[in-house]
Amino acid sequence: MPLPVLFVLQPYASHTSFWARLAAANLAEYAQYFYTDVKVKFPALVRGETAQLDRLSELGDVDRELLQSNAVCSGAGEGHTIGGQFFEKRTLLRSIQRVCPTCIIADIEAGGEFGAYGRNYWHMASVRTCVAHSRPLLGLDALKSPRNAHDFHGRIIDDFVMISSAVKASGRRPPTDLESYLVARLQGRVEYNWLNKFCIQVASKTCEMLGAVMMRGPTANLAAFQAEDWLAAGSAGFAVASQGEEAFRAALADLQRRPGTPSGGPQAHWGRFYQWVAL
After folding, report:
1. pTM for this one?
2. Which letter, b or e, does each residue of 28-52 get, where b requires 16 or more Cβ atoms within 10 Å of its Cβ?
Protein backbone atom coordinates (compact mmCIF):
# COMPACT_ATOMS: atom_id res chain seq x y z
CA MET A 1 0.00 0.00 0.00
CA PRO A 2 1.36 3.47 -0.88
CA LEU A 3 2.24 5.96 1.84
CA PRO A 4 -0.28 8.69 2.74
CA VAL A 5 1.88 11.52 1.34
CA LEU A 6 3.38 10.96 -2.11
CA PHE A 7 5.52 12.81 -4.65
CA VAL A 8 6.17 12.59 -8.35
CA LEU A 9 9.51 10.89 -9.04
CA GLN A 10 11.45 13.70 -10.67
CA PRO A 11 13.74 13.16 -13.70
CA TYR A 12 17.12 11.69 -12.73
CA ALA A 13 16.29 11.74 -9.01
CA SER A 14 18.44 9.40 -6.94
CA HIS A 15 16.46 6.73 -5.14
CA THR A 16 17.87 7.68 -1.74
CA SER A 17 16.77 11.31 -2.10
CA PHE A 18 13.29 10.10 -3.12
CA TRP A 19 13.18 7.88 -0.04
CA ALA A 20 14.31 10.74 2.23
CA ARG A 21 11.56 13.02 0.86
CA LEU A 22 8.92 10.37 1.46
CA ALA A 23 10.18 9.67 4.97
CA ALA A 24 10.21 13.36 5.96
CA ALA A 25 6.79 14.10 4.47
CA ASN A 26 5.37 11.10 6.31
CA LEU A 27 6.58 12.43 9.66
CA ALA A 28 9.96 10.70 10.06
CA GLU A 29 12.57 12.94 11.64
CA TYR A 30 15.42 10.76 10.36
CA ALA A 31 15.19 8.74 7.15
CA GLN A 32 17.17 5.78 8.50
CA TYR A 33 14.65 5.20 11.30
CA PHE A 34 11.57 5.23 9.08
CA TYR A 35 12.31 1.76 7.73
CA THR A 36 11.00 -0.02 10.84
CA ASP A 37 7.52 1.40 10.25
CA VAL A 38 7.27 0.42 6.57
CA LYS A 39 9.27 -2.83 6.40
CA VAL A 40 12.26 -1.51 4.48
CA LYS A 41 15.85 -2.56 5.19
CA PHE A 42 17.59 0.79 5.07
CA PRO A 43 21.21 -0.32 4.43
CA ALA A 44 19.98 -2.62 1.65
CA LEU A 45 17.89 0.21 0.22
CA VAL A 46 20.95 2.47 0.14
CA ARG A 47 22.79 -0.25 -1.79
CA GLY A 48 19.91 -0.36 -4.27
CA GLU A 49 19.05 -4.01 -3.72
CA THR A 50 16.20 -5.31 -5.85
CA ALA A 51 13.74 -6.21 -3.10
CA GLN A 52 14.14 -2.81 -1.45
CA LEU A 53 13.63 -0.92 -4.71
CA ASP A 54 10.50 -3.02 -5.24
CA ARG A 55 9.26 -1.94 -1.82
CA LEU A 56 10.16 1.72 -2.42
CA SER A 57 8.30 1.63 -5.73
CA GLU A 58 5.24 0.30 -3.92
CA LEU A 59 5.45 2.79 -1.05
CA GLY A 60 6.03 5.73 -3.36
CA ASP A 61 3.56 4.54 -6.02
CA VAL A 62 6.09 5.15 -8.80
CA ASP A 63 7.19 3.24 -11.88
CA ARG A 64 9.66 0.52 -10.88
CA GLU A 65 11.77 0.74 -14.05
CA LEU A 66 12.07 4.52 -13.79
CA LEU A 67 13.16 4.22 -10.17
CA GLN A 68 15.78 1.60 -11.11
CA SER A 69 17.11 3.62 -14.03
CA ASN A 70 18.12 6.48 -11.74
CA ALA A 71 19.15 4.45 -8.69
CA VAL A 72 22.73 4.51 -7.46
CA CYS A 73 23.38 0.82 -6.77
CA SER A 74 26.33 -0.71 -4.95
CA GLY A 75 27.48 -4.11 -6.11
CA ALA A 76 29.15 -6.89 -4.21
CA GLY A 77 32.50 -6.00 -5.79
CA GLU A 78 34.42 -2.76 -5.94
CA GLY A 79 32.00 -0.45 -7.68
CA HIS A 80 28.59 1.09 -8.22
CA THR A 81 26.17 1.45 -11.11
CA ILE A 82 23.73 4.10 -12.26
CA GLY A 83 21.39 3.09 -15.04
CA GLY A 84 23.66 0.21 -16.01
CA GLN A 85 26.78 2.42 -16.15
CA PHE A 86 29.63 1.08 -14.00
CA PHE A 87 31.76 3.25 -11.71
CA GLU A 88 34.68 2.29 -9.52
CA LYS A 89 34.18 3.41 -5.93
CA ARG A 90 36.72 6.20 -6.25
CA THR A 91 34.92 7.68 -9.26
CA LEU A 92 31.47 7.86 -7.65
CA LEU A 93 30.75 9.80 -4.48
CA ARG A 94 28.10 8.24 -2.24
CA SER A 95 28.30 9.51 1.34
CA ILE A 96 29.88 12.80 0.23
CA GLN A 97 26.92 14.90 -0.86
CA ARG A 98 27.21 17.74 -3.37
CA VAL A 99 24.33 19.88 -4.60
CA CYS A 100 23.58 22.75 -6.92
CA PRO A 101 22.26 25.49 -4.61
CA THR A 102 20.19 27.00 -7.41
CA CYS A 103 18.54 23.63 -8.12
CA ILE A 104 17.70 23.16 -4.45
CA ILE A 105 16.10 26.58 -4.04
CA ALA A 106 14.18 26.17 -7.31
CA ASP A 107 12.96 22.72 -6.18
CA ILE A 108 11.62 24.12 -2.91
CA GLU A 109 10.00 27.09 -4.60
CA ALA A 110 8.25 24.75 -7.04
CA GLY A 111 7.50 21.79 -4.75
CA GLY A 112 7.36 23.19 -1.25
CA GLU A 113 9.09 22.08 1.93
CA PHE A 114 9.85 18.57 0.63
CA GLY A 115 10.55 19.57 -2.97
CA ALA A 116 14.35 19.31 -3.04
CA TYR A 117 15.80 16.14 -4.56
CA GLY A 118 19.25 14.87 -5.50
CA ARG A 119 20.24 14.43 -9.14
CA ASN A 120 22.06 11.18 -9.76
CA TYR A 121 24.84 12.86 -11.75
CA TRP A 122 25.85 14.88 -8.69
CA HIS A 123 27.43 11.64 -7.47
CA MET A 124 29.92 11.48 -10.36
CA ALA A 125 33.32 12.67 -9.13
CA SER A 126 34.31 14.05 -12.55
CA VAL A 127 31.23 16.29 -12.72
CA ARG A 128 31.78 19.41 -10.64
CA THR A 129 29.28 21.78 -12.26
CA CYS A 130 25.50 21.89 -12.53
CA VAL A 131 24.69 21.49 -16.21
CA ALA A 132 21.30 23.18 -15.74
CA HIS A 133 22.47 26.36 -13.99
CA SER A 134 26.22 26.57 -14.73
CA ARG A 135 27.03 26.72 -11.03
CA PRO A 136 29.79 24.89 -9.14
CA LEU A 137 28.44 21.99 -7.11
CA LEU A 138 28.54 22.71 -3.39
CA GLY A 139 29.79 20.12 -0.93
CA LEU A 140 27.57 19.83 2.14
CA ASP A 141 28.99 20.16 5.62
CA ALA A 142 30.04 17.27 7.80
CA LEU A 143 27.23 15.11 9.16
CA LYS A 144 25.45 16.22 12.28
CA SER A 145 24.72 13.13 14.40
CA PRO A 146 22.45 11.18 14.21
CA ARG A 147 21.88 12.27 10.61
CA ASN A 148 22.65 9.56 8.06
CA ALA A 149 24.81 10.40 5.03
CA HIS A 150 22.01 9.27 2.69
CA ASP A 151 19.25 11.30 4.36
CA PHE A 152 19.18 13.85 1.55
CA HIS A 153 16.22 15.87 2.78
CA GLY A 154 17.63 16.05 6.30
CA ARG A 155 21.00 17.22 5.08
CA ILE A 156 19.37 19.97 3.03
CA ILE A 157 17.56 21.13 6.17
CA ASP A 158 20.78 21.00 8.20
CA ASP A 159 22.73 23.04 5.63
CA PHE A 160 19.96 25.25 4.28
CA VAL A 161 21.55 28.52 5.45
CA MET A 162 24.79 27.65 3.67
CA ILE A 163 22.92 26.58 0.52
CA SER A 164 20.86 29.78 0.46
CA SER A 165 23.98 31.91 0.91
CA ALA A 166 25.76 30.07 -1.89
CA VAL A 167 23.03 30.98 -4.37
CA LYS A 168 23.94 34.64 -3.89
CA ALA A 169 27.69 34.19 -3.49
CA SER A 170 28.75 31.62 -6.09
CA GLY A 171 29.46 32.79 -9.62
CA ARG A 172 28.53 31.09 -12.84
CA ARG A 173 30.84 28.56 -14.46
CA PRO A 174 29.75 26.86 -17.67
CA PRO A 175 30.13 23.07 -17.58
CA THR A 176 33.07 21.77 -19.56
CA ASP A 177 32.51 19.70 -22.67
CA LEU A 178 33.59 16.64 -20.69
CA GLU A 179 31.03 17.30 -17.94
CA SER A 180 28.27 17.85 -20.49
CA TYR A 181 29.24 14.62 -22.27
CA LEU A 182 29.24 12.59 -19.04
CA VAL A 183 25.84 13.85 -17.91
CA ALA A 184 24.32 13.35 -21.37
CA ARG A 185 25.74 9.84 -21.54
CA LEU A 186 24.45 8.95 -18.09
CA GLN A 187 21.02 10.18 -19.11
CA GLY A 188 21.09 8.30 -22.42
CA ARG A 189 21.24 11.40 -24.59
CA VAL A 190 24.75 11.20 -26.03
CA GLU A 191 25.47 10.90 -29.73
CA TYR A 192 28.30 8.87 -31.25
CA ASN A 193 31.68 9.48 -29.66
CA TRP A 194 34.83 7.33 -29.71
CA LEU A 195 34.79 7.44 -25.91
CA ASN A 196 31.49 5.56 -25.90
CA LYS A 197 33.39 2.31 -26.46
CA PHE A 198 34.75 2.61 -22.92
CA CYS A 199 32.75 2.44 -19.70
CA ILE A 200 31.85 5.90 -18.48
CA GLN A 201 34.31 6.10 -15.59
CA VAL A 202 37.19 4.99 -17.84
CA ALA A 203 36.21 7.65 -20.39
CA SER A 204 36.18 10.37 -17.73
CA LYS A 205 39.48 9.43 -16.10
CA THR A 206 41.20 8.93 -19.47
CA CYS A 207 40.37 12.52 -20.36
CA GLU A 208 41.42 13.88 -16.97
CA MET A 209 44.70 12.00 -16.76
CA LEU A 210 45.68 12.66 -20.37
CA GLY A 211 44.84 16.33 -19.94
CA ALA A 212 46.83 16.56 -16.71
CA VAL A 213 49.98 15.31 -18.43
CA MET A 214 49.37 17.49 -21.49
CA MET A 215 49.08 20.56 -19.25
CA ARG A 216 51.61 19.88 -16.48
CA GLY A 217 53.98 17.28 -17.89
CA PRO A 218 54.61 13.61 -17.02
CA THR A 219 55.41 14.35 -13.36
CA ALA A 220 52.34 16.50 -12.70
CA ASN A 221 51.65 16.83 -8.97
CA LEU A 222 48.12 15.44 -8.96
CA ALA A 223 47.88 15.64 -5.18
CA ALA A 224 47.94 19.43 -5.48
CA PHE A 225 45.17 19.57 -8.09
CA GLN A 226 42.09 21.55 -7.10
CA ALA A 227 38.66 21.38 -8.74
CA GLU A 228 39.61 24.01 -11.31
CA ASP A 229 42.73 22.05 -12.25
CA TRP A 230 40.75 18.85 -12.83
CA LEU A 231 38.16 20.74 -14.86
CA ALA A 232 40.88 22.16 -17.09
CA ALA A 233 42.62 18.79 -17.40
CA GLY A 234 39.39 16.99 -18.27
CA SER A 235 38.52 19.62 -20.85
CA ALA A 236 41.96 19.37 -22.49
CA GLY A 237 41.85 15.58 -22.59
CA PHE A 238 38.29 15.49 -23.91
CA ALA A 239 39.16 17.90 -26.72
CA VAL A 240 41.59 15.24 -27.94
CA ALA A 241 39.90 11.94 -27.08
CA SER A 242 36.48 12.96 -28.37
CA GLN A 243 38.00 13.29 -31.84
CA GLY A 244 38.78 9.59 -31.96
CA GLU A 245 41.58 7.07 -31.76
CA GLU A 246 43.78 8.78 -34.34
CA ALA A 247 43.76 12.07 -32.43
CA PHE A 248 44.35 10.21 -29.17
CA ARG A 249 47.41 8.42 -30.55
CA ALA A 250 48.71 11.66 -32.03
CA ALA A 251 48.52 13.31 -28.60
CA LEU A 252 50.53 10.49 -27.03
CA ALA A 253 53.12 10.77 -29.80
CA ASP A 254 53.31 14.52 -29.25
CA LEU A 255 54.05 13.96 -25.56
CA GLN A 256 56.97 11.71 -26.56
CA ARG A 257 58.43 14.43 -28.79
CA ARG A 258 58.11 17.35 -26.39
CA PRO A 259 61.35 19.17 -25.60
CA GLY A 260 62.70 18.22 -22.21
CA THR A 261 60.87 14.90 -22.07
CA PRO A 262 63.27 12.36 -20.53
CA SER A 263 64.37 9.42 -22.59
CA GLY A 264 63.14 5.99 -21.65
CA GLY A 265 59.99 3.94 -21.78
CA PRO A 266 56.31 4.87 -21.62
CA GLN A 267 56.43 5.99 -17.98
CA ALA A 268 59.10 8.56 -18.83
CA HIS A 269 57.01 9.91 -21.72
CA TRP A 270 53.51 9.73 -20.31
CA GLY A 271 54.17 9.70 -16.57
CA ARG A 272 50.99 10.01 -14.51
CA PHE A 273 48.82 8.89 -17.41
CA TYR A 274 50.82 5.69 -17.83
CA GLN A 275 50.81 5.04 -14.08
CA TRP A 276 47.01 5.33 -14.03
CA VAL A 277 46.60 2.99 -17.01
CA ALA A 278 48.95 0.46 -15.42
CA LEU A 279 46.96 0.28 -12.16
Report:
1. 0.93
2. beebbebbeebebebebbbbbbeeb
